[in-house]
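2024-03-11 09:14:02 INFO receiving multi-entity request
2024-03-11 09:14:02 INFO entity count = two
2024-03-11 09:14:03 INFO echoing inputs for audit
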Amino acid sequence: MGRIVLKNVTKSFGDTQVIPPLDLTIEDGEFTVFVGPSGCGKSTLLRMIAGLEDLTSGYIEIDGNDATQVPPSERGLAMVFQSYALYPHMSVRKNIGFPLRMAKMDQAEIDQKVETAAQSLNLMDYLDRKPADLSGGQRQRVAIGRAIVREPAAFLFDEPLSNLDAALRVGMRLEIGELHERLKTTMIYVTHDQVEAMTMANKIVVLQAGVIEQVGSPLELYHKPRNKFVAGFIGSPKMNLIEGAEAAKHNAHTIGVRPEHIEVSTTGGQWEGKVGVAEHLGSDTFIHVHGIDGCDPMTVRAAGDVAVKHGDTVFLTPQAQNIHKFDQKGLRIE
Amino acid sequence: MAIVAKPSKFAKFGRPTLAWIVGLLFFFPIFWMVLTSFKTDADAVKPEYLIWFTPTLENYLNMTENYDYWRFAKNSVITSVLATAFTLFVGIPCAYAMAFNPSRTTKDVLMWMLSTKMLPAAAVLYPMTFITKSLGLFDSHFLIILVLSLINLPIVVWMLFTYFKEIPKDIIEAGQMDGVSTWGEIKEILIPLAWGGIASTALLCFIFCWNEAYWTVRLTTTDAATLSKLIEGNRAPEGLFFGRLSAVSAAAVGPIVVLGWFCQKQLVQGLTFGAVK
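2024-03-11 09:21:47 INFO inference complete, emitting structure
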């Protein structure tokens, strides 16, 4: 079981408040992702849940028990670090078995659990190696192995994939996703990569400067961003935000249109502009268009290969049902 | 042809020569001491026997038979080993706390500890003698161990602190998440990872304890007297007996030189222990 409740939690470093009062509930079995730009307090928040960082004020509850003053070693949570944080003087087998040995489990049981974990993570051939002899992906799997053998109330992941190369990252993302499907244990995952957030989460918590901007499922965030920040942060390429006369036509201060919700034509449409750069990906074409009032450049994602090049004149038309409207304060208008 | 920087003449010949000169300069007194220890007291002051003389073991035999060398040596070993052990026992948790859970005053505390080394020992000689005598601790092993520990604690904590700082904090935190107690963490993670650093700190502390003369000479008479006291005692009122004095000194520094020689390789290896990143 791993239901985690944060009530009125704050954190200050000296006189600087990094997390203003914050409330959040993470339900048992949920895969929650904290996402936001660097320095938004997402790692600090995770470390506070782990117990590695003290709360300045507020209250943390794990499975209905007050855990605010409980040391990290007694919270029953497991953490996977960005740097892997393996014990360099121990073999893979010892690393994975370490939490069990600390829990005074008997050796036969430890061996059996370590083997099971190693099997599920494809680490059987590396059990007697030291961490220094492993690749980045293997090290990260050892770190995950060390976390799963404990059968924790919740897993905490602190940007676990950012030290891996792009191809490996996609693979590990799937493995962690599958792990969650299999174990059904609560997972809290911190990342600055919105693609990781969108693909893995049941619930995304978008943070900026220690403040929760929005909590919701990936698609809720995509379709109904609560404000301009979330609108710009979720989705790739970023949503186009248009101010001025165009926005006023919709009785809004700012309107937002996602690049994939704009039709491109070379003959006619609502807005006219010149192509700056066209990125041909094969499956899609990203076109950056200059000269449109209130938004320069505007990014368009057209399906397939669209034959446009630098300097061409194109006409853009937004899909009316997919225009997001925001008021003066940047909040969504329904 | 590629243009490469040519080593200067100084780098090629001058530097090694300089290194040899400095090395020999440092080694010479030890060499001279050992040489003199094989001369009789009479020969030791005669210029004609400067290099060519009839070697004798008289001084060494004399030392073990008449001066009870082994008792002094035993005291040196006991006090140095126990003081080093005690210093590490206190210093490791102390440096661990400061390296991994620093507070706002950690830096000040470190500076303050170092500042205690700036106090001239002579300034507290009288109170120390007075207090230890009135407490009945004068000339006891306990006192010497305590004094040696306290003298070396600041430098030991500083050294350990620097070594511990090298260990990534994540690894310590991973230990906490894995359910290890503070002592478990020191035993299972910190000590194995900082082993090289701890060993070289221990060796240095041991050398300092062994070589300490100011307090060991002044706070002991017989029971807890160390080799320093033996050397001091041979600076006899009857005059200077260079042969005998050299033998005693050689026997006093001998063990520590041998120890340092043997540990050299392990220490260097320990210091370059590969961290994982």
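2024-03-11 09:21:48 INFO post-check: Chain A has a mean pLDDT of 93.
2024-03-11 09:21:48 INFO post-check: The interface with chain B takes residues 50-52, 71-74, 77-79, 81-89, 98-99, 102-103, 131-132, 146, 150, 156 of chain A (CB under 8 Å).
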